[in-house]
Amino acid sequence: MDGHPIPSSFLTESLELELETEWCRPPCFSCASDGRKHFSPDSHLASGSLKRLMLSLDPLPTNFEEDIVELFDFQWVTEIALVNSSRDLFSLCRQQIYKLETLLQTTGDLGQASALHSEANNIRHRCVMFLHYVKVFIFRYLRIHETENDVPLHPYEVLEAQLPSVLVEELHGLILYTGRLSDHPSVTPGAFIVQNQIKLFPPSWHLIHLRLDIHWLVLEILHILGEKASKQVVYSHQLMNMAGENLTSVSLFTEHCENLLCDLISLSVSRYAKVRPSEAVTSHHCPCLCIKELWVLLIQLLDHRSKGCHTEPFWRWMNKLLKDLFKKPNDTERPSIPVVPSKDPLGFSWWIITHLASFYQFDRNGVLDEKKQMNSNWNFVEELLKKSTNVQDGILEEQVRMYIHCCLTLCGFWNPNIQIVTILWDYYSKNLNSSFTIPWLGLQEFATISKSTLSMLEIVKTCCSDEQSHDLYKSNSSYNIFLCVLAKVMKKAIATNEIHPWNQIKGRIYSKFHQKRMEELTEVGLHNFFKLFLVLAAVAKLEDVVSRVLDLLDFLRPGSVTPSQRALVWKGQMAFLLMYIQRNLDVGILAQTLSGAFREKAKEFLVSKNELGQKHNLWMLLSIYMDGVQEVFEMSRDLKLSEEILLNDGFSMLLPACREAQLGTVLSFLQAVLARVRSVYQQSCKELPGENSGLSVPASSVAKEHHLAAIAQALWRNFFPFLKSQRMSQTVPIPQLADTAAGFTCLALDMPRTAPSDLQPQPVISMMQLFGWDDMIWPQLVSRYLSHLIQNKTLSETLSHSGCTSFQALTVRSWIRCVLQMHMKDLSEPNGILVGIDAEQTVEKEYMEQLAELTRLLFQLPEVKNILSKAQVEHLAITQDPPKALVLFLETVGITYSSLQTLPEKSAMVTKALEYLGEVLKYVKPYLGKKSSNAGLQLTYKIMGVLVKSWALILATSKAQKLLFRIIDCLLLPHAVLQQEKDLPTAMLTAIRKSLPLYLQGMCVICCHSQTQNAYLNQLLGNIVEQYIGRFLPASPSLQALAQHPVLLGLNKSATMPKTASLQKTVVQVIRKSYIHFKGTSPPPRLASILAFILELFKKTNMDIGDMKELLPSVLKCLLLVNEPQVKRLATENLDHIVKACQAGSGGEPATQLTSVFRQFVQDYSMIYEQQVYNILEKVAELDQQIVTGLISTLTQCLKDSELKQGLGRNIAQREAYGRLLSLLGQPGQEERLKLENENT
Length: 1241
Hints:
- InterPro entries: ARM-type_fold, MMS22-like, MMS22L_C, MMS22L_N.
- It is found in: Chromosome; Nucleus.
- Belongs to the MMS22 family. MMS22L subfamily.
- By secondary structure, the protein is mainly alpha-helical.
- Among the domains are: about 40-145 and about 155-265, no CATH class; about 805-830 and about 835-1015, no CATH class; about 1145-1240.
- It is about 65% helix and about 0% strand.
- The protein is built from 56 helices and 4 strands.
- Strands 1-2 form a two-stranded antiparallel sheet. Strands 3-4 form a two-stranded antiparallel ribbon.
- The chain starts with 11 loop residues before the first helix and ends with a helix.
């Protein structure tokens, strides 16, 4: 055992670790990975076989330890078998290979698959076991004999001395017998793929993997043999190589290694033919896991040997073979080793080098280590780059894109290399005006110009990202990928503290730009220019790059720059500005340049009148500026980097020149800036030490406060004057105007000292007066504005402490106006366009939602909540429907007032209530004009009606009567109503019909409780009743129509209005005087309808006898003087109702209260209309005999007076009629009749 190497002490630990592994079977190639590791546990890598080989450890420490070893089903002596029977053993190995090959020709059904798999697996196992035995034998038992030793040797020693040479020959023969991987038709990519996971593989699978085992184990054996021979060359005594030289262990290793690499390259070439350029980085070149493992094994072994044996490392082997692919058929130098030619050797070289470079991430155990230091191959890659960017060869963008993508991947693996950046920049500097598009990729390829500043920065972010997208090929041009390469190289160089690379790259790039070159740049070229310098700024010195860019942009002549190019220049400059913000650098110098250009363009925009093309181009630049400035404010952390310079007086020139859509854009920008300034201010307030902390304010905080104040002043100075001038305009988008005004109000709340002098000393109250409490402002603006501010608790507290006690009352007043004027926009519609449309549909949905939100917030005000609680209104009863909520509020105020006890409380409440209303009639006055709104009129009359009814006790006071009189004059008794011959508009009549009961009931209460001007109030009530009884009286009597008469509805008793006696009396008086009064014998118009109305009046009310007595004469006249059947019927019904009502009022006794009325009726008409009077009294007698009985004396006297007046003696006909009446009166009638008869005789 003298030939055994003595392991060094530093290997002891590794050996012990290896011995802990359970060596169940020798390692071999296998595609069946468990999915948890990159390679199969039985592989040469995962099993630790390669590691043991490189550490010169026993290949299989736990195998072949018995005295007898079984090889090819024969038993051999372990320590001498290879010396004594080496050629026999290799012959048996070849026989086994042949046997496996014959199994390929066996065709069997599925049932034989298991048997074939088992037999093929056993054959492979025997061959692999034998080759591992050769490795172990060389390591453990082989002794190398000195050739110059003349000492006679034992025959075994003679054979042992010849064994190395024999092994070289036998291994050479085994290689030849096995053949190259590319020589067999079964070696196709499909043969390597595991088609199923049931572990039953066909013989072809076992054969190809056995060949892989043999090719690799031969290299292992030759390496161990070389190590055993102390790196001496072992010569073959019988064979020569293809060059005619003696075959040696070294030449055999080299030749076999080259053949194996060629075969692997050939396999990769066949796969590359199916790879698209867009999939080059993601499509691997290994057909199976075993091929991948073989590549890793070769990389590890060749690089390991290059360190100890001074042989070539892996990359040199590959470079030599790949260079052969570029040789043409007519080249004098033909490759010594044949490689399957590729149609695209350049693309293939990039592809395979990129993927092979990734294999360097695997260690000797097959474990992936992404942080592992990798050997680079930059020299060959630089040659590839020069070929790839050779314009004379006519390389297409789709190819260049793939090459640069591969180069970028290599930059991620290897150390930074400045030369590749130089080579690429030489190519792209000549083609800056190219768009680098691939037509077949679709429309996305043509969007080469960034649409915004952020999109430019997004490109830079993508280029500088450490993690590149798998879709980089399709989503980025080759130029963008070059920028990724540039960024990655720079970042890696800076990470290694190298300064010279930046100076080198800066010099190469800057030198390509001069005045002529800048003037030659198209829009695409300018875009590529900015992308380049933005990437440089992102990874290098920002100030240096920006200074150079500004100098280069000065080379552009203004007259030759197109609008699109100018827009691109602004975007690029804004992108640099954002980079300053990202790095927390002061933007003063760059901001001065940009804001100055903005001021000039805003001035041009203002003075250019109808030049649409010029305005469009100018607006494009102005929009870019605003977008960029907005991003600056949103990105800046503390707003202390001189951002106020960007808000110059250019905006004061821009705003008046904007149209509505453009104005919306500017206001949106302004809102964003206001919100950001307030947010930063509030955050800075939280960071400041408290007043009582005793700590001094840091200088940074003072600087921040100074900059914030400067920004706020710039906003007030350059934006607010225009905003203030547009309060009553309809050209400005109202929602945005309201939002912006609210933003300024909150700014005044946070930073009051920055507000202009015309708003001082209380800028918040001034702002509220301008935009929230002014009755001239559009309600849409007011509602949205107040919605923002009501919920601001800080604002409420500030206004309360400032002495503005009417803050909540004024807000309620504005809300009432917003509700009442919710249909104001209807007035701008053409007449008739809104007929038949639901009232809610005539209000813009957005405004209704805003008004509902304001309503919800208003009911949260402390003052309103206090009123609700005093009125005991539950929270659930509160509605967000604005009109209903207003009705509820008015009713609640009335209830609250009625519950007050003391006079001071009531007086204060009246004052507050009137403050809530303000000039309420001015709010609704537009509805009352010639161009009215149906919905607006109905809302007005309803709300005012609720007001009169609910606030009756308030309106009864002297303070509020003036308002009451104005309501009646404007709504119920305007001049048009007093003109009886003139018809009122249908919409107004409809509105009055629906709401009149509310007014009547309210006036009834007012008349009862008012202590001043009582007579005038009653007169007003009478005038209202007089006007509207007739206006709503149907032409012909209709019970259904009369039942809905508003005056009758006003007489209905309810829980809220129990007393209507005064109204009832007024109605009776008006009817008697104006509607049922006869002019001589001529009846009044619509007599039947008024009689029907009176009849309904009797039914709906409990009329007292006095009122009935007033109506009775007129009813009797109708029976007497009118012959129309309908009138007689209705008059009879009224008479019947009066008599019965009087009887009921007397507790069932005779209605003698009416006797005087009937007596007067008899005295007035019996001498002329004696027959009609008797007929009427007959009807009365049927109802109440006592009434007529009481009239006997009067009737008799009238009879005698009539006869006397006529002078004709007794009137027989009249006496007979009178007798018939008396016959109906019982005993008194009989007695009077007998008395008259006795007088006759």
